[in-house]
Amino acid sequence: QVQVAESGGGSVQAGGSLRLSCTVSGNFGHIYAMSWHRQAPGKERELVAHMSGGGVTNYPASMKGRFTISRNSTSNTVYLHSSSLEVEDTAVYYCNMAVTEGFYWGQGTQVTVTS
């Protein structure tokens, strides 16, 4: 069984920074891709950052410059570094891991940006 767990959410003032972590564990083969998504109240889930198994990163235009995805391959952990946060960044942030056995979502971690 594969488990994905996020951590690091919380409340931060506008203009601040936050680092989220996501670890995949259990019985899985290769990690093909890792990504972060978010869903604000009343809105659809959207992509924030993506990293291939080879380390190539991609960001939607609206996320470039304020979000950075990185990883620690040894611990099967992916990070989302965010800076210059805005109130509009308030959302539940989800991690997705694409592994040999399929796609797995974490339970999400709440990020609240206050003015």
Count of individual helical segments: 0
Mean model confidence by pLDDT: 96
Low-confidence stretches: none
What summary fits the major beta sheet? 7 strands, mixed
Shape: globular
Key words describing this protein structure:
115 residues, mainly beta, 7-stranded mixed beta sheet, 4-stranded antiparallel beta sheet
Q: How is this fold's topology laid out?
A:
Blueprint: E1 2-7, E2 10-13, E3 18-26, E4 31-39, E5 46-52, E6 57-58, E7 67-72, E8 77-82, E9 91-99, E10 102-105, E11 109-114
Parallel strand pairs: 2-11
Antiparallel strand pairs: 1-3, 3-8, 4-5, 4-9, 5-6, 7-8, 9-10, 9-11
Question: What is this structure, in a nutshell?
Answer:
0% of the residues lie in helices and 59% in strands. The protein has no helices and 11 strands. The relative contact order is 0.33.
